[in-house]
Amino acid sequence: MTERPGHSLQRRLLFSMAAGFAVLLILISILLWTYARTAANRTHDLLLAGAALSILERVSVGSDGATVDMPYSALEILSLNPVDRVQYRVFVPGKAEITGSEDLPFPANGELSADPAFYDSDYRGAAFRFVLQGRRLNAPTGAEWVAVQVGQTVEERAAQQWSFFLSGLIGLGALSLIGLGFVWVAIRTSLSPLRQIAGDLRLRAPNDLSPVNGAPPREIRGLFDAINGFITRLDQSRRLTETFIADVAHQTRTSLSALQGHLALANDAEEFDAMRARVEKADSQADRTVRLTNQLLANAMVIHRSDQASMHPVALKPLVRDTLAESLKDSRMRQIALSLEDEGIAPGRDVIHGDALSIREALRNLIENAVRHGPADNTVTITLDEAGDNLRLSVDDAGPGIAEEDMAQATERFTSLSDRTKGSGLGLSIVKAVAEGHDAEMRLSRSTLGGLNVTMVFKRIAAALLLVVGLGLGASEGQAQTLRVYSATDTPAMQPLIEAFLATAPGTEVEYVEFQTIGLYQKIRDSDPDAMPDVVISSAMDLQVDLVNRGLAQRVSLPVDASPPGWATWRSELFGFTFEPAALVYDRRAISDADLPANHRDLASFVRTNEAALQGRIGSYDLRQSGVGYLYASQGSLQGPQAQRLIEVLGRAGLKVYCCTSQMVEAAAKGELAFAVNTIGSYASSLVQDIPHLGLHFFEDYNLVMTRTAFVPQGARNPELAARFVTFLLSDRGQRAIAEKTPLIPIRPSGPAQTEIERLIEENRGTFLPIKLTPALLTFLDDLKRQDFLSGWDTSLGRLP
Predict the structure, then answer these.
(1) Distance of CA 514 to CAs 24, 400, 575, 656, 742, Å?
(2) Residue 373 pLDDT greater than 90, yes or no
(3) Per DSSP, what are the bridge partners of residue 618?
(4) What pLDDT digit, counting tens, does each position of 375-386 carry?
(5) At a CB cut-off of 8 Å and minimum separation 6, what does 765 contact?
(6) DSSP code string of 243-285
(7) Does domain 466-578+710-741 have CATH number 3.40.50.150?
(8) pLDDT tens digit string along 287-325?
(9) Which CATH architecture has domain 580-706+771-796?
(10) Does this model's pTM top 0.85?
């Protein structure tokens, strides 16, 4: 009789579900999706329209034509959307470009109007939503249109659309319950064969490992065959275990019976010498029994620890030396010449992925075998050397060795090739199990000392730190685990942090290339995608935001416990990991602590009052050369009219400009400067701590705080390793390393203040004003805005721009 094919479980489930869900969910989903898209567009279009209108209000026409003073509020409005990148353009249609990105797409059939026009378009590989709005202005040549385009990527808009859509679907829970009823009926009907199999297995005796019989449906035939295959393998494993237990029982029973026999004969002996001889034989048998028991336990331990969960990076050199030191404590080693040769291996090149306990047990067995089977004055040499990408651990002895034809048999359990020194026969089998568990090669051969040579060949991993300062030195080709970091942070400050990361990432090298902030920005902006580093680090937050806004970064998912504060992250692509307040460094010989200005207004008054004495003795950043200096100065200008007055007062006092904090501190230490403003607090603190006549000061009204930021570029060769590094920077371990091993200040303090600057920050808490990572930082990078700001700066300093 022909066997009927099993019914289709998949068809039954699909038909049952389709009847309940198909019509209702399709219709309702279409309606919800349309509503969600309309609502999301309406919300975000208001931000675009507000930014465009804000820019149009600052457009004016002069003798040289139309110009615009880019308002900070325009991009601040767009920053209410914390995710999307922004682009803008201000131009006179058909005549001139005023500022912004000249290549923004124009609507195909759009006409310029005073009313905002919204449209979608792709720009540089990303989807954007744009607004186009114009304004007629009276120019010397007559009335003309000035147009503004503002665009945002649509990531947050799409996310909000999905949020609206899913929220609506949740409201359909009542209808879903009806559908779930259909699914429940279908599952109960269709899965009955599985319940039959489960019942069959549940009623079996523990020792019943026979295959499951039956004719399952086609959809679960693979599961059915897999269960039977598993039962077959389990039965084979049980038979092997029973065989091993029987072997162990036989060996232990034989050894204990021999021990009991010797003791019985000793008990029956009538003469002392005969009894003593029997006791000595019993003692020798007891030693063999203890050795057998120990090796049985060792064999079980090695097999148990052969899984990958027990494997960790292990340095062989100290492990071998420690094992030898333990072996030398044995009284049997007094006449043995035991030596180690491992001098040819450089530090850090002896690391393997393995289990230290198993390797130590294997080496201990090899040494014990050599001692047991060799002469009383045996020579045992242990060699650890390199062989390409591998490490070889060899043990040579001067004993009798093993005949070539017996070497294959020597690694079998309970096999002893010598009647004179007959043992448990487990020593080499344990070594073989350790080698197999480490995916290593085990070799037996004739030793140059005349006895046996046992060699285990392990695969090596390496941990090293490669620091490269300067340009033109690339990473070595083919090193997949090389992390390339481009950074505007001093190498000595970052080196301890990199070393702390490498301690968590064996097999990794770091190539660290140091730049100035503007040079780094230009390098990343102009590089081809295939020439990008893996991580970019800079203190110039605005330049970093610009690079990310150009679409040059990729997203990194950080764990919750490694997330920075909200002001120090943008788009899950740019992350701040340090806390860098702007500080005033002063010479106590020129300014006493009592005369220190309490706030920025008092600072302007202090300089004005003492202008003659301070002439040429005040320092700050050269804004044309320093990205962080420009960031501090431009953000300071937003703090009120007194900021501009302070710049003018400093200019009249002959302000000197420098490239970096270290030069300003050095000039103050020599007495060339009375004080320097807007120095990077962490650097300044580490530099002044050994100079008694220099001090650090914060103001009572506000102190700007920037953060050193990091991102993983698009095109990074090792994005996963780069993400691990960024995560490490913000992890508890990385933040502790910043606090304890570098002059930098962690963004998430984890304990009481320990350094002078941490104490000052704690005393002035509430006065620190973090600079937020938002598109608003792009305002002062606008070409016209930057030119105007630097022109005003140059005028205040009394020099031609």
Answers:
(1) 61, 61, 19, 25, 16
(2) no
(3) 675
(4) 878 888 888 888
(5) none
(6) HHHHHHHHHHHHHHHHHHHHHHHHHH--SHHHHHHHHHHHHHH
(7) no
(8) 666 665 665 555 555 555 555 445 667 788 888 888 888
(9) 3-Layer(aba) Sandwich (3.40)
(10) no
